[in-house]
Amino acid sequence: MADTGGPAALDALLDRARLAELVADYAHLLDWVDWDGLDALFWPDAHFDFGMFKGDLGAYREFVVALEEGYARRLHMFGLPAIRLAGDRARVDAGSVIVCRSDAPAPGIDDIFWGRYLLDAERRGGEWRLSGLVYVLNLFDRARRAADDRDGPMNFGDGLSPRHPFALRGAMTGEPR
């Protein structure tokens, strides 16, 4: 039976909340192509395995920049992560659906990935960061768009970046949008 009270239980809840926040931050950084933000999520000695790519943080940055910036739009969605704590280490398993839009040739092609992110995390000096990432692909689909959806009065996700007017920077620093 799990401990439901006391300081250890509160600490475990805080650790789980921080680890879930790291998963959400990862999705946000990829969607908004905020590559500098990766340094705050991963330990410098983190390792990465996507099957077609394996490497360290520096090589991963090159890989993910080339991959994600090849799309006009991207949306990384994660299910509730399963988190297993073991002292200053944790394993996080988060199912995901990723939809990426390529606009070449118009009206575009959507790549859809269903998979899992298996993340290792470590607490060092009181700070949690990710120390490993393995991506497991369950299903991939490519759909050619029949029509261009950019007509009409919508806010589209083209050109997302940390400098975009809708970026969260205002919420983080108190700046107005």
Q: Number of domains in the coordinates?
A: 1
> Low-confidence stretches at least 5 residues in length (pLDDT < 50)?
170-174
Largest sheet: 7 strands, mixed
Q: What's the architecture, going by CATH? A: Roll
Q: DSSP strand (E) fraction?
A: 35-45%
Q: Specify the helix fraction band.
A: 25-40%
Mean pLDDT: 89
What integer value in Å does the Rg equal?
A: 18 Å
Helix and strand sequence: HHEEHEEEEEH
What name does CATH use for the topology?
Nuclear Transport Factor 2, Chain: A
User: Total number of helical segments?
Assistant: 4
User: What is the global morphology?
Assistant: elongated
β-strand number: 7
Give the SSE map.
Layout: H1 6-31, H2 38-41, E1 42-49, E2 54-56, H3 57-68, E3 73-78, E4 82-86, E5 89-102, E6 109-124, E7 127-144, H4 169-173
Parallel strand pairs: 1-7
Antiparallel strand pairs: 1-2, 3-5, 4-5, 5-6, 6-7
Which features does this protein show?
alpha+beta, about 180 residues, 4 helices
Your description of this structure?
With 177 residues, this protein is an alpha+beta fold. It has one domain (6-173): Nuclear Transport Factor 2, Chain: A (Roll). 27% of the residues lie in helices and 40% in strands. Strands 1, 2, 3, 4, 5, 6 and 7 form a seven-stranded mixed beta sheet that branches. Strand 4 (82-86) and strand 5 (89-102) form a beta hairpin. The longest helix has 26 residues, at 6-31. The chain is elongated. It starts with 5 loop residues before the first helix and ends with a helix. The relative contact order is 0.17. The model is unreliable at 170-174 (pLDDT under 50).
